[in-house]
Amino acid sequence: MTLPTAVPKPAAPRVNPLQRIWLREIGMERLWMRPAPAAARPAVVPQVPVSKAVLEAPGLAPAVLSPNAAPAPVTSAAPEQVSGDAVAPQLVVPTERATGRPGIPASILTRTGPPPRPVAKAAAEETAEAPRISVADAAKNATLDELREQVVACTACGLCQGRRHAVFGQGATPTRWLVVGEAPGEQEDRQGHPFVGRSGQLLDAMLAAVGMSRDTDVFITNVIKCRPPGNRNPKPEEIASCSPYLMRQIALLKPERILVLGRFAAQTLLGTDATIGSLRGRVHQLKTDEGAQIPVIVSYHPAYLLRSPSEKARAWQDLKLASRMV
């Protein structure tokens, strides 16, 4: 009879670096590093003497006899297959216990590659984003008040990220003259109104010289409704995003004439790259979507006149040209 032998403690399976990364990724590294719990089985397992004939019996060749094995179904052996005095009417043929640790799937322990990336949600599971409406479509049928709200909430281009206020415009409605500048400056961005500060004071004085006022006769706005950083010229995509607002303002206000101030505003509204020197001093025509023709007079921007006072005489000639038109 073979003496019982002590059952050795199971050693924890080794983890390679890639497996450790995966365990850390799923938050189970600490669980893995804890010592394995003691196996729930007797300290010793009796060894049963079995003859070679029994081991070679059909159906037993794949079996693994191990002191660490779990119990398996009992298989009977014929008495004539056992040699010597010992007769083994029954033979316990265990199957090997799967190695692992509590709570950790075997697929994780046997993984050799890096942890898989999180699977993106299916498109059907994600909230369907509402289709964006273009500025042109939104402004097409808006009233003046609705258009103002659209401008204030506009995020069609990157200029919205650095603005304090979007500058819709200010003045009389209905209006006789529409004055169009280039873009808001620092003071306009702070206050939310067009042509304030020194430029605004000069513009008000110029209009008053020909009997016009922003309170009763003139509506003042800009091609671009948000201040470009550093007062730079707007980019083409910014112009394309903002132009529908200006064209809708023109359609709603129906001015008798348009006074355009500055090279950039004149080139944008008239669709040309001509210099301001060649554009001023004569009357242009702007054709609206409704087919109307509105006279357009080009002049210098008040900020330029503050830097170049000698050009005020030419600006005065432009104002008289605009005031003589019927």
Automatic annotation (TrEMBL):
It is an enzyme of class 3 (hydrolase). It catalyses: Hydrolyzes single-stranded DNA or mismatched double-stranded DNA and polynucleotides, releasing free uracil. Coiled coil: none annotated. Residues 97-119 are annotated as: Disordered. CDD domains: UDG-F4_TTUDGA_SPO1dp_like (cd10030). GO terms for molecular function: 4 iron, 4 sulfur cluster binding; metal ion binding; uracil DNA N-glycosylase activity. Its EC number is 3.2.2.27. Residues 168-320 form the Uracil-DNA glycosylase-like domain. Keywords: 4Fe-4S, DNA damage, DNA repair, Hydrolase, Iron, Iron-sulfur, Metal-binding. Pfam families: UDG (PF03167). One of its GO terms (biological process) is DNA repair. Belongs to the uracil-DNA glycosylase (UDG) superfamily. Type 4 (UDGa) family. This is Type-4 uracil-DNA glycosylase.
